Amino acid sequence: MGRALKVAVVGSGPAGAFCAEILADEAGQDVSIDVFERLPTPFGLVRYGVAPDHQKIKSIVGSLGEIFESPKVRFLGNVTVGSDVTVEELRAHYDAVVLAVGAPLDRPLGVEGEGLRGVIAARNFVSWYSGHPDATFDTSLLAADRAVVVGVGNVALDVARMLVRTPDELRRTDVPAHVIEALAGHRVREICVVGRRGPEFAKFTNKELLELAEVEGADVIVDPAELVLSEERQAYVAGRPPVKRLLATLQKIADRKPQGRSRSIRFLFDRTPVGFVGESSVGVMRLARTSDPTIVEDLGAGLVLPAVGYRSVQITGAPFDDGIGRIPHRDSRVTDGDEVVDGLYVVGWVKRGPSGVIGTNRLCASETAAAVLADAAALRAPEGGAGPIDDLLESRGVRVVDWSRWRAIETAERELGAACGRERVKLYDRAEMLVAAGIA
Ligand SMILES: Cc1cc2nc3c(=O)[nH]c(=O)nc-3n(C[C@H](O)[C@H](O)[C@H](O)COP(=O)(O)OP(=O)(O)OC[C@H]3O[C@@H](n4cnc5c(N)ncnc54)[C@H](O)[C@@H]3O)c2cc1C
């Protein structure tokens, strides 16, 4: 066919990055891949979701970064697809467009009073402590005596753990200074982690629970009564070794004597949130026993952080299934009704839904890349597409953060860290990032 296959990937999280890597590896020399990212920074939730005290997991940015060093792959940060450039325009410029835009919205609890001040999706809190440039979190809410984290997945444990990290522990991370200041001095004394079902259905991993059990900054408390299971439930556990291990860890925590630390984290299972009560701010969270809804209890709380899952958001110009909150597809090819949309693909959380670890996106990306490559011959328009996208972006005044500019942001973050005896401190203000990138 005589010219390289041109692919646009929208989103530079793990799914988009892995997809670019696999396409670069498997399409031979004849491929060029542009990865568009709405933020000036790459890596999606690896930078803005994975907890800052999990630097080992975060170190995957080293290998994700290598993908963008390839001469076949370009990073175009600070470009929002849907407003700076449309999906239609990308489809005119590229043979294939892969949507890897993740799942940025929170799933609501759907209970009365959820709109009260103080009930804030855990994702907002995570984005704030991760230094996401769009994050808003009212730190005065940290004056509450008790905070409740709703949900029993790893994100819920991340949030609870970050609320009790000591200033020294926080200084070993890359979180911005204002985050350390707010987290070091906050007044929350008790953090309740609330699960709808019994402990045998908790979604967090044993590894995360063991880590939480050892935090310096709080007593972790499980009332032994929470772990009493009926025979039927015991039979359920018996056939599931990972669940058995998790329950054994919870039991060990329940058997420990609290150390009288200034903060505590308490697990409450079998509780369904049924409402929030307060004038304009939440004061009370109403919970019903899931196994017996006639038992209702009120838990005083000035901060409630629901961590019960995510949803994707529609990108203008791309089909979206509101019911499932994802882009519909057949074998990674985006569909509109019964029809496959030529040259449009999907990968990652926006394809599968918000589940799975970083590595899960690699398998997902290999399926999507395989679909692109299987279609490649038919995709390549003989006239060669509409030329480079750069002119269009420039004509619109879009200030693209390319890979070398991102490297300049990284350097600025290391310098900021060195100035205060830390390895690195994240820039969190978009304007400051652009100054560091040399394009403000
Ligand atoms: C709080 C939290 C903690 C987690 N911790 C871990 C962990 O410790 N270990 C682990 O293995 N997994 C963890 N995960 C899961 C992991 O982060 C996900 O599996 C993974 O990030 C999903 O990849 P993705 O590329 O689909 O989405 P994302 O990582 O969300 O990437 C999507 C990217 O698309 C960009 N984008 C969105 N819209 C546009 C647009 N219109 N134009 C251009 N760009 C756009 C976004 O800015 C983002 O960079 C965690 C998830 C969360 C939410």
From TrEMBL:
Listed name of the protein: ferredoxin--NADP(+) reductase
Organism: Actinocorallia herbida
Oxidoreductase keyword on record: yes
Domain of life of the source: Bacteria
Start and end residues of each FAD/NAD(P)-binding domain: 6-166
EC class of the enzyme, as a word: oxidoreductase
Cofactor (UniProt): FAD
Keyword Transcription: no
Swiss-Prot/TrEMBL catalytic activity: 2 reduced [2Fe-2S]-[ferredoxin] + NADP(+) + H(+) = 2 oxidized [2Fe-2S]-[ferredoxin] + NADPH
One Pfam family recorded for the sequence: Pyr_redox_2
